[in-house]
Amino acid sequence: MVLFLEMGAAAQSVPTKLSLAAATDLLMKRNLAVLAARYNVDAVRAQRIAAGLRPNPTLSVSATQLTIPRLFANPSLALRTGDNVAANSTYTVEVDQLIERGNKRGLRVAQAELNVRVAEAQLRDALRQQLFQLRQAFFSAVLARENLRVARENLAHFERTEQILQAQYREGYTAGVDLRRIEIQKFELEHEAATAEQGYQQAVRDVLNLIGVGDAPSNASVQLTGGQSANDADLQIIDGDLDVIPVLLWIDDLRQMALANRPDVQAARLAVDAAKIGVQLAAAQRVRDVTIGGQYARNGSDNTVGIVLSVPLKVGPRAQAAIEQATALELQAEAQLRQAETQALTDVEKAFIAYRTSRDRLRAFSSDVLRAAEDVRRTEEIAYREGAKGLLDFLDAQRAYNQVRLDYNQARYDFLMSLYQLEYATGTSIVK
């Protein structure tokens, strides 16, 4: 199996031997979900800048009382007083500035700053979710690789046994039915090996997708060279194992960690704070803004200046609708916070149950159990070859040995993933 990871001259290179740390670095740089969340932070920061801007002044220029026939007949009358003052043209230049009252700008800025923090927490949450998916895919590939090796070792062992039985069959020492049973068992092992290999390739493909190269199947894919099975070197593309250092965890500590550190809970909590400021901002609409301005006017040859003060008239409770909407959004944010906290605690409970179950199951395995299964298989094989036992006894011992190894791999995988599930549930680092 060959791993093609060339993405073009401008693309970053991906290691052909991919460790979890390297895959994590690539995910943080190139994962599309993380990039989308990062762009959302940039967009919300731009909104923060807009929220702090003051209203621009308004420039107005006007010309009124233009008597067209008279001006065409004598253009010099445009800028001087004529005999008929009422017929003189008036030119006005006015600059107005809206003055916001009620701390509206300060509230907008405070709400925008909280929205930035919400977006940053959502970015961390997107990273939390994508990292968990990466670890699932990565260690699913490791599990499939270990199971593939078990299947291949058993297959090689059966092929040697088959060769011996074929020789014995030709010499008349073995019944043909035993040879057919071996062939059937060999077929089952070949199927198990093919299934494990398929699982490995699919898991590697998931890893590539999460690190940002999954959209280029022609030049960033895992393929079997010449239609052959992957060799041992190919199986090292995913550089990792299922071993982990056991840790001692307490459910109460995990609950507190989840409520304090989970980014989705943090985002929901910040959203409540932003909604509270939204209510204050809506209430601030009751305070009327004023507009002040300066005016210069020329009527004929006369120049005048003036000051303009504009105050909107309060007709009806126009801010009430905005206040009710903001209040509803605050209640919605509080409900979403309670839901996020409940979900976090539920995730912790489920992850801790998986942790205890997988921990106890892994403890049941030891080197003695694996060695005992191998010894039983070897004993049954020798007894069969010497005629002391039947083929079915040997096949049962072989299946038991194979199942013990597969169960051991699964137990290690389940325990490791239970720790990562606890990391996902609490938003903190647990696996060492």
What does this 3D model show about the protein?
Its main location: membrane. The protein is an alpha+beta fold and 432 residues long. It has a domain at 1-54 and 101-241: Outer membrane efflux proteins (OEP), CATH 1.20.1600. The chain contains 10 helices and 8 strands. The strands form 3 sheets. Strands 3-4-7-8 form a 4-stranded antiparallel sheet, with no helix packed on it. Strands 1-5 form a two-stranded antiparallel sheet. It is elongated, with a radius of gyration of 38 Å. The two termini are 31 Å apart.
Unreliable stretches, pLDDT < 50, 5 or more residues? 1-12, 218-228
Share of residues in strands: 5-15%
- Broad shape: elongated
CATH topology of one domain: Outer membrane efflux proteins (OEP)
What's the CATH first level of one domain?
Mainly Alpha
**Head-to-tail CA distance between termini:** 31 Å
CATH superfamily of one domain: Outer membrane efflux proteins (OEP)
Radius of gyration: 38 Å
**Secondary structure category:** alpha+beta
Subcellular location: Cell outer membrane
Family: Belongs to the outer membrane factor (OMF) (TC 1.B.17) family.
Organism: Pyrinomonas methylaliphatogenes
InterPro entries: OMP_efflux, TolC-like
Outline the fold blueprint.
Elements lengths: L1 E2 L14 E2 H11 L1 H20 L6 E7 L3 H6 L16 E10 L4 H68 L4 H35 L11 E2 L14 E2 L11 H11 L1 H22 L5 E10 L2 E9 L9 H45 L2 H19 L5 H36 L6
Parallel strand pairs: 2-6
Antiparallel strand pairs: 1-5, 3-4, 4-7, 7-8
Helix pairs in contact: 1-4, 2-4, 4-5, 4-7, 4-10, 6-8, 7-8, 8-10, 9-10
Organism: Pyrinomonas methylaliphatogenes
Family: Belongs to the outer membrane factor (OMF) (TC 1.B.17) family.
Pfam families: OEP (PF02321)
